[in-house]
Each structure stands twice: as structure tokens, then as C-alpha cells.
Amino acid sequence: MAASEIDPRAPEPPYRQIAAVLTAEIERGDLLPGRPLPSEKELTERFGVARNTARSALAVLRERGLVFTVSGRGTYVAEPSEPAGGQ
Amino acid sequence: MAASEIDPRAPEPPYRQIAAVLTAEIERGDLLPGRPLPSEKELTERFGVARNTARSALAVLRERGLVFTVSGRGTYVAEPSEPAGGQ
DNA sequence: CTATATTTGTGCGTATGTATG
DNA sequence: ACATACATACGCACAAATATA
User: Fold this and answer.
1) DSSP of A16-42, one letter per residue?
2) Mean pLDDT score, A23-50
3) Percent of chain B scored above 90 by pLDDT?
4) Residues facing B75 on adjacent strands
5) What percent of chain A is predicted at pLDDT more than 90?
6) Domains and their CATH numbers in chain A
7) Which of A32, A36, A72, B25 could make a disulfide contact with B30, Cβ separation 3.0–4.6 Å?
8) pLDDT tens per residue, range B59-86
């Protein structure tokens, strides 16, 4: 069976669960500053959600200053000392 | 302080208050025929309501024939002589 | 410059679940 | 039960930005 990284029936909504998974990967150093996150399309496939849901997850990370998005390119891991979330 | 255009505690429900505001803007000529209304997203931000509520307001105008909606594009001000609201 | 593919941005249609009066 | 409202989610379509051939 496929390992479902998220549980749609959990009290925590899928977009927050996805945000938590990605946040963990960033803080673990699995995704380094300057490196791109998976595209929205890849996130929808990996987590089995709609694009809107993947985008909501990315929006959470963006608000925390963990990542930044470049239109037409992708979303990238921010420097640990970036302004918004930063320190 | 921010001017709250609508009052959630008024007897008139928010979606009708929003409909009234938009109707006034159309009849005042603030929004001309053929021109797009604010998107649902913009309405949610402007009036501080959920998307469903903004949509309910637009539905009111649509029933009155004041506006028409094109899926994926937006909602537009109808011609003054349109059928539904007519004459 | 043109064409194409990829990715993000925007916008509407719809459905479900929850909460309140 | 019903109307209203919010939060979340899935789907679809097209536009804009970017990169590459």
C-alpha cells in the first residue's frame, strides 16, 4: 500500500499537514537555502491533493518566511536569517 | 481605524449588505456596463467575509440581472436594458 | 523573434463539514 | 429544521512569467 504522508480525516487539515512535512524537511536540512521546493504539480502528486491545497501549504511557509516564490520559476528555501520570519 | 462597510450584527445579513453596496456603485455609475466587478477574492478582503458570502452577494445581483458571470473570468456589469432586471 | 514546455497567478464552479441563531 | 457564515477541498480554465530550443 502507498504510504499516505497525510491523513485527510485528521483534525489537522491536509494543507497544514503538508506545510508541517515541508517545514520539517527544511529544518532538517533536507532542503537547503536557495534550493527549490517541489513544484506545485509535484506536491499534488506526492500528497494526493488538489493544486489549491498544495498552494495553501506553500502559502503557510511563505507567511513564516521559510520560503519565497518566483512567478514562473518556483518556490525556494529562504535564508535562515531572512527578514519576514526571521529572528 | 478601518471603515467597516458592513455590520455583521445588523439585522440585514452581510451578503445582502454587500449586495446593496455593489448595487449602489453600479447605479451610481461607479461601475460601468461591461466592466468587471471586483473578484471574489477582492470582495472577501474588502468586506472581511468568506468567499461563500461574497458569492452570495454576487448571486443577488445576478438574479436581479444587474451583472453576469463568466466562469473562470469574472463577474461583469450588465447592460441597463438587459432582460431580467429590465426596463 | 517564434515556439513550446514548465511553473506560478488568477478566477470561477461546486461540495462538504462545522457552527450559530 | 432552516438560513447564514466560515473553512477547507477538489475541479477546470486561462493568463502571465520564465526558461529553453
Assistant:
1) HHHHHHHHHHHHTTSS-TTPBPPPHHH
2) 97
3) 57
4) B69
5) 84
6) 13-77 (1.10.10.10)
7) B25
8) 999 988 999 988 888 999 998 864 444 4
* d(CA B37, C1' D16) / Å: 21
Say if residues A62 and A68 touch (Cβ distance below 8 Å).
yes
Which nucleotides of chain D does any protein CB come within 7 A of? 3-14, 16-19
Which residue approaches D7 most closely, CA to C1'? B50
- Residues by CB within 7 Å of nucleic chain D, which ones? A 8, 13-16, 48-53, 56, 70-73; B 8, 13-16, 48-53, 56, 72
- Name the closest residue (CA) to the C1' of nucleotide D5: B53
C1' (C17) to CA (A13) span, angstroms: 12
Please report, rounded to whole angstroms, the spatial distance between the CA atom of protein residue B34 and the C1' atom of nucleotide D6: 31
Of B28, B63, B57, whose CA–CA distance to B42 is shortest?
A: B57
List the grid coordinates of B49: 467575509
pLDDT for B2: 53
CA–C1' distance B80–C18 (Å)?
Answer: 41
Q: What is the pLDDT of residue A71?
A: 97
